[in-house]
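Ticket closed. Logging final result for Propionyl-CoA:succinate CoA transferase.
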Amino acid sequence: MSGAFPILSAAEAAELIDHGMLVAMSGFTPAGAAKAVPRAIADRAKILHEAGQPFRIRVLTGASTGTSLDDALAEADAVSWRAPYQSSRPLRQRINKGEVEFVDMHLSHLPQSVLFGHFGDIDVAVIEATDVTEDGKVYLSTSVGASPTFLLKAKKVIIELNRGQSKEIGKMADVVVPDTPPHRKSLALDHPLQRIGTRYAQVDPSKIVGIVENDQPDELGGFTASDELSSAIAGYVVQFLTEELAAGRIPKEFLPMQSGVGNVANAVTEGIGASTEIPDFYMYTEVLQPAPFRLLKSGRMKGASSCGLTLLPEQIQEISEDIDFYRDRIVLRPQEISNNPAIVRQLGIIAMNTALEVDFYGHVNSTHVCGQNIMNGIGGSGDFARNAYLSIFVCPSTAKDGKISTIVPMCSHVDHNEHSVEVIVTEQGLADLRGVAPAQRARLIIDNCAHPMYRDMLHRYIEKCKPGHIYHDLERCFDMHRNLMRHGDMLAGETSSVA
Ligand code: 0RQ
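Final structure:
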């Protein structure tokens, strides 16, 4: 990098952010998230609040971030509005108390919304990079996210130059910012590893107001090892995919996989990797988690296209140390491309995402507990599920020590409707909903996926419904949720009208 841009401390950079501004920051999961500047903004907010002055900003990122961004800003009460996704406990609490406005949206939609100004002008973008050149080439770090669009649209740009991230990782990006409609050209991307763009994002260098140097690693939370439940789910998924292969419904060279966030998704990918019948495969996904990375290392996975490297610090280190191996096996794309509906359909992705609850007809709630309190957000799950060749949803059959059945008569919130959901898997079994009409779907899901302690209750609901194309009774369909809210247990009101 040239010395063309002023070097600022994080505190000096935070001084450039004022109350009410829309600030866009890099980060797609903790991967590549801005760290030093948001922490300094949180400190600035605390000082201003103590002095009796207002300070809250509107925050955009690619997806969720690390503790220095969402946790720190939320704990400092420095956020008034947030989009498009989060997974931070303190932020979630404030959203669910109504203290922070949160807009939950498909991640592939975000760059276009920013480009057309749906949220107003971006005052400042804070973008983590491994390098920046005098003429405005920005080499991003462990994620691309929506940073290319943020750089394009922001009035001012602060670069967090992370010296701890390898410059070689910064060159794994394949950046394309599609033209705007009606002049948008089709994306000629026929293979998960194909490159169609540049290795850097472009910014008008006159917008760069400062460089903040940093060397912190990404703040990845711990992953728990596969447990009995997630291994059982993985077993059913592997068996199903093996049978689909044998029947010729999945081509013999297999199809690229997408896998969502979380421990269950991580375990299922591990299970697929351990299968001797599923051939070596590619991923076309938005997050590359630790388990699939191990498959890449072992050669079981042939390559991965992702939006970010949601990896353990030692795995990031491993990429830097063996860059010749990984350079041709990993491509990092903007979320508009990694999650692009046209490409997901074109490549024939097998999508695997996680549900909070699933109803009898295959509607999926991935985001809101009891229809009210947000967990994380829809993230990219809708981008993939709606357009996949095969859309699978997984979850344990119960939550909170059995007090919650994840199989319910009607979802309390719907993120993915019955038309985007083809296969449901819990540790109890698998329901293949393809070609199955609603009444039969309900029985299949109860018998194959619900926990045995809930099955009678669920069957009785159906038996007491008046027949229709879909069996429902609007007076009873939320009785299990009502039991949970009143008694802390969906079974507690067994005398209720569900039973
Ligand atoms: O609660 O955290 O208090 O223990 O939900 O559940 O079983 O640990 O599952 O970590 O895989 O997360 C859907 C949230 C699952 C995630 C969700 C409680 C349960 C536990 C977590 P605790 P698990 P996971 C790509 C794709 C949407 C976004 C997405 C998610 C906690 O996968 O956010 O897919 N998906 N993006 O006890 C009440 C229920 C519950 C429940 C589970 N029915 N009611 N609580 N829990 N079911 C990535 C990106 O987009 C970047």
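The first strand starts at residue 7 and ends at 8. No further action required.
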